[in-house]
User: Fold these one by one.
Assistant:
Number 1:
Amino acid sequence: MSVFETVTGPNATFQSIILVLKFPFLYGHTCHMINVNLFLILQSLFFGYIKSCIPNLTYLHNTKQQVLLKLLHSVTPTQKEHNHFQEKLNMFSVKELVESNCTSSVPSNYVCLKTPEDSILYDETDNIPTIDFSQLTSSNPDERSNAIHQLGDACRDWGFFMLINHGVSETLREKVLREGESFFDLSQEEKMEYAGEKILDPIRYGTSFNLMVDKTFFWRDYLKCLVHPHFNAPSKPPALRETLEEYSRKGKGVVEELLKGISLSLGLEENYIHKRMDVEMGCQVLVINYYPPCPKPELVMGLPAHTDHGILTLLMHNELGGLQIQHKGNWIPVNPLPNSFLFNTGDHMEILTNGRYKSVVHRAVVNTKATRISVGTAHGPNLDTIVGPAPELVGDDNPAAYRAIKYRDYILLQQNNELDRKTCLDRIRI
Ligand SMILES: O=C(O)CCC(=O)C(=O)O
């Protein structure tokens, strides 16, 4: 049966369920089919019974049937959409695409429209702030207070900084990158075991950003794992789980110290953000991005301009650059210091601080030479925490600029919509 063949009745419902099992990412569309079909069956039974009692209802029955059939037809895509979807199914991985395609071209559905401004880069890498973690955690009050001050400036002026002397060993960082990359070397069948459709699935392998909403595909495959409050990771390759668990735990420790410094830099009590966002049970999502080499990198995007939904994102990548951040309207390529971590403030930092610390727009570009791997860990509030601007940071001359929203709902809002260069914050701005 073709994916979009229009069938009705119990047979269609059964086939729809089979489809979901075969192609979990069709879930949304198929659920709709199942719902419509179940509804048709139920209403047929209902009207069948009533009709036998009151013959005059036949007309009403037929009319309703037509409307429902139209509804069903309205989810049947055009031929163009059908072809588009078939392509999605065939190209479920950009790694597979690169490895199976010996040509030097890029499929048209990966070509991103770029404005001239998109291509201009300003080399201000030297100015990206560097924070020394050993000073931030120093027992010397002057040293610590100086580092807190620098951290506050970095969050306010850049929303982005490099962290040195963080205490996470280079050996562990390299292991994460190496073993993370080896996940993508598993067979497509093994990886597809983790191809979840739902945004908050504990482990999710995929490609692009969100296949169900992307109009253009992005040149990346990814593996996302919810690593806190409950740790989840694939069981293959064998060493990956243990490595990611250690890395996530250490990363969380670093973030918790940074959040203390950030709270103090805002004039708040040291544990303010920790308590307010329930970081103890906070949602930590680790994403391994796999960007294979591309024959025409100027035509595609690894990840388009976006902001992160959490409070703070910790990022590192292999030896290949590709991260660019937006600063005062300019795109700046980032070349981190050796052994440093990159950090950026996310949307929930901007919401909580009522805009004092901005969530930074960034993107990832790809190259012709080799595969770029990056590992981002988003640290956010507890999924059920409702976050709005901190009352301490709101006043008559600085009214609340964002509506309070549950973190879970915010993630769904962001991830179920196309990354269209706008920050998701625009959706909750007052
Ligand atoms: O690959 C990178 O450097 C950036 C990744 C990123 O922005 C993300 O995972 O949200």
Number 2:
Amino acid sequence: MFHQKLSVSLKFIVITLIAGVSSLGITKLDYLLGVKQSKNESIKATQDKLMAVSLTTNQINQVPNKFHSTVVYQGKLKANEKVIALTFDDGPSPKNTAQVLAILQKHHVKATFFMIGQMVKYFPQVAKQVAADGDVIGNHTWHHSYRHVDVVTAANELNTTADIIYQTTGVKTTLFRPPGGFLNNGLADYAKSQKYTLIMWSEVSGDAERPSPQVSKMVNNVLKNAKPGAIVLMHDGGGNRSRTVQALPQIIDGLKAQGYRFVTIPELLEIQAQEKI
Ligand SMILES: [Zn+2]
């Protein structure tokens, strides 16, 4: 049902985009798509490309229906399914997010970023880069407050964040991570009512502790607790995350040495859904 609605609204968006873009003419469209076109290439071909871009962006952000309105701490996978999901919260931030992205790119790793709405507003280019790299984006509220909120405030926190993520990156978020992991302050209930999948974590790097732990401690925290389907909590915003940036290559190398491959949260849930355990 949700998928049907989504697919209808996705089509509407694509059609609206195409209608809008067609009226701008081919030159403008080339610019929007960032591609060079031959003179003979038809408008139809250009429209197909635009549709492909939009569909690809949003397909990688979808999760199987069975996970809508549920709380996920980790993927429940077979013991030999050595996949793990890295997640980064509280960005996008101008320096550390870019550093994290560069490391992920270098190691061919995809991850999931839970973004704060107002940070997307301040640093839209960084948010765009996350989406352009093929990483997944989730909703982490506008203000990142822990206090109890009424339903109107909760709706505002989530909806404004979803809107700016969409306007900035074209991504329709389906994932929500409650700030501080609080599931009882009104935000999680609203997220469930909107069919978000609530993503917690099963492992912490400890990078948000104060004082910040040594790099070697962060690396060890993750490597010693690694297990199939684990969701690892890290941060690319909310303060100086230079130690997270230093730890990340060692975490990736260490997990690879243990035989793990890296998946986004939607990929993790898709694997679990297909295993049917
Ligand atoms: Zn957070």
